[in-house]
Amino acid sequence: MLYFAVAAIVVILDQASKRIIWEAFRERGAADLIDGLLRIRLSTNTGAVMGILSGSRLLLVGVTVVSIAALIVFAYRMRYAPLPKRICLGLILGGAFGNLIDRISTGEVVDFIDMGIGPYRWPTYNVADIAVTVGAVVLIAGFMTGPESARD
To answer: Angle of helix 127-145 relative to helix 2-25, nearest 10 degrees?
Structure first.
């Protein structure tokens, strides 16, 4: 079950990066990496994407646990799917677990990757968010463009 191995790697990378950044930046807060385009900026989020449902810890934990259960069932049903689809499921599953660990342990998710141009910034995110986004986009694209989407 490849998706569990991929998920484990994502969780390890996510949690390790959050701990390293937390220790290195909790005092100073931020650092420019690429001339204002890419920064490390330590922040926390008690809500979902862009702070939606901020302060709704139990609801967010519940939704995440149900989502993870659904992903595990879906992954089992796709155990013979092509390799890229199984990897994508692992990315999504690992990302969900990574942020769930934060939410359960501290009540907030640690974010630290800040991108944008000048005052126009993308919401700060983390490795788990990248894994979920990449996994979901590639998986959806695969379903939309794969052979099973062709109509005769």
So the answer is: 150
Check residue 152 and give its pLDDT. 41
Residue 139 has a CB neighbour count (10 Å cut-off) of 20
> Which 3 state secondary structure label does DSSP give 56?
coil
Q: Taking the alpha carbons of 65, 96, 89, 2 in that order, is the dihedral positive or negative?
A: negative
Q: Which residues are catalytic?
A: 111, 129
Ordered by start, the domain boundaries in the chain are 2-15+54-146
Residue 19 has pLDDT above 60, yes or no: yes
Give the chain's count of helices (H) and strands (E): 4, 4
pTM reported for the whole predicted model: 0.86
Tokens 């501290």 correspond to 106
Contacts of 17 by beta carbon, 8 Å cutoff, 6+ apart: 112, 126, 127
